[in-house]
Amino acid sequence: MAPIGTLIGPTVNTRNYKVRIVAKYLGVNIETTPQFELGVDNKTPEYMAKYPAGMAPAFETADGFSLTQSAAIAYYIASKNASNTDFLGQTSEETGEILQFILLSETDYAPAMTGTIYPLLGFMPLIKPARQQAEQQLVRFLGVLNALLVGRTFLVGERLTIADVFVACNLLLVYRTYLEEADRKQYRNLTRYFKTMVAQPAFKAVIGDVEL
Amino acid sequence: MAPIGKLIGPTANFRNYKARIVAKHLGVDIETTPQFKLGIDNKTPEYLVKYPVGKVPAFESADGFSLTDSSVIAYYIASKGGNNSSLLGQTPEETAEILQFIMFAESDFTPAALGTFSPLLGSMPMIKPAHQQAEQQLDRFLDALNTLVVDRTFLVGERLTIADVVVTCDLIMSYKFYLEEAGRTQYHNLTRYFKAMVAQPAFKAVLGDVELCKERLKPAAPAVDETEEEAAPAANPKSKLDLLPKPKMIFDEWKRFYLNNTAKPDAMNWLWKHFDDEGYSFWKVEYKYNNELTSCFMTNNLVAGVCNRLERAQKYAFGCLLTLGKDNDNMIWGYFIVRGLEVPEEIIESADYESFDWSPADYKDPKTRAEIEDCFAGEGPALPRECNGGRIFK
């Protein structure tokens, strides 16, 4: 099947994974740009002319439609694939809930997570009061997610939705670098959820094995 | 007409406006909670049971469906809006573009805006490097938006969509508190867009008249005790260290000599000749979390940040912080000379102080002396490990 478009951005990258997992799950073919250098290729005049905020990833279809923001790209790919109606929600309420999780994960959880972990990796300066605040928020979100998942396999409805792709991918760094064995037991529902998600074929195909 | 539901949250609030503007545009009724107190009513046990993250606003429909996140609520109301479906786009491409703008506004633009304004409004502590970074991002995104709207009336397609509602509401604070007349002219496309949006009937009905910024918001000045004039020639000293008796070694002379000569032997000979151990003291400085360090490149970045944040102590300190070791097995180690016989307040109050051990160093001990010399030279056998970078704090 011909690819529906090209995902432009670094390929070893959580935002990139999200879109590719959605495409994989839905059996949609997309091209990627494995040579893309973050911080270099998205700052060229050509790139900035098309994408003024210089953000990556971006997405371009064969007929010239272009998009940024991994959530919008993933949603678009799903919306062009009419066969799987659960994935974006079957009702307005389900779609509302799905978007709620995506926004929560991207605008509230992700900054708390990066604010906690990035300074330890040197991607961000370590400013103690800011990091402490981020860590408090992170712990709070992990607790909330853990409680939410007590009786659920998936976040919305009874099947995998785009909300699961986004929330699970945003947990990658936390499970790889932050939560030790004792913590994983403490957040047992979340850990069960995370392990189930990354074991799904579409996740495994894109991310490979996740070392905790 | 029965209200579609209740929007729970403070009403004079940019997030709250979004759902109300959509409802107004659709001619749909929505209840609000004008008495809601932010920070209080969203922290009650009852609220947190329903909305564990404590997010505001929340939405409850007549039939018990509940939702959080202002943009998602606006989206949901638009999706229930019936015949006027163009708010959510008329094609999958338009819908995706709408989501693109919403995600940009919510996960990129708004954090930069809040990071800039909240410390100025006092709703968040002011941490200067974080505030500076937020402000840089805000300018970057205002510029991007300005470029994007150069030839557009609406953000997506040829009609109002909820992308316009979300982005315009997220711009309110910038136009009220930040962009003075010069800024508004600088981003003139964006200003044209913003003014056109808030003039639309649905916006006007909810926002009223939006008063544009006359003077950019400044940080709230801390309450200052008005001090009387000192009889002494100097005004109130800014640091306790300025009150110390004049030392026999002038710090600036040392710093100049060090920068203009080779460390070993010339600068160090000068130092041992002139060092005044009543006016200054040596301290060994070691990072507490060496096991968390990764590549030397990253550690050097960390050290650079630490030195930047020691700015306040610049007059009263000199030191070298080195990255010793190799990738994934390195440490931050160094020595400082400080004014006085204790670690200055200006260093203790810096953001990074808690991450380091400061221990007094006896320069008369030969081993310590050798370490100090090699430290200030950035190389030598007395260093515990190989030096792979570092910073001179002067």
TrEMBL record, chain A:
PANTHER family: ELONGATION FACTOR 1-GAMMA. This is Elongation factor 1-gamma. Residues 3-85 form the GST N-terminal domain. It holds the Pfam family GST_C. Residues 91-212 form the GST C-terminal domain. Keywords: Elongation factor, Protein biosynthesis. One of its GO terms (cellular component) is nucleus. SUPFAM superfamilies: GST C-terminal domain-like (SSF47616), Thioredoxin-like (SSF52833). It comes from Coemansia erecta. Belongs to the GST superfamily. GO terms for molecular function: translation elongation factor activity. The keyword Protein biosynthesis applies. InterPro entries: EF-GSTs, Glutathione-S-Trfase_C-like, Glutathione-S-Trfase_C_sf, Glutathione_S-Trfase, Glutathione_S-Trfase_N, GST_C, Thioredoxin-like_sf. Gene3D superfamilies: 1.20.1050.10, Glutaredoxin.
From TrEMBL, chain B:
Residues 91-223 form the GST C-terminal domain. Residues 3-85 form the GST N-terminal domain. Residues 237-394 form the EF-1-gamma C-terminal domain. The keyword Metal-binding does not apply. It holds the Pfam family GST_N. One of its GO terms (cellular component) is nucleus. InterPro entries: EF-GSTs, EF1B_G_C, EF1B_G_C_sf, Glutathione-S-Trfase_C-like, Glutathione-S-Trfase_C_sf, Glutathione_S-Trfase, Glutathione_S-Trfase_N, GST_C. SMART domains: EF1G. Keywords: Elongation factor, Protein biosynthesis. One of its GO terms (molecular function) is translation elongation factor activity. PANTHER family: ELONGATION FACTOR 1-GAMMA (PTHR43986). Belongs to the GST superfamily. This is Elongation factor 1-gamma. It comes from Coemansia erecta.
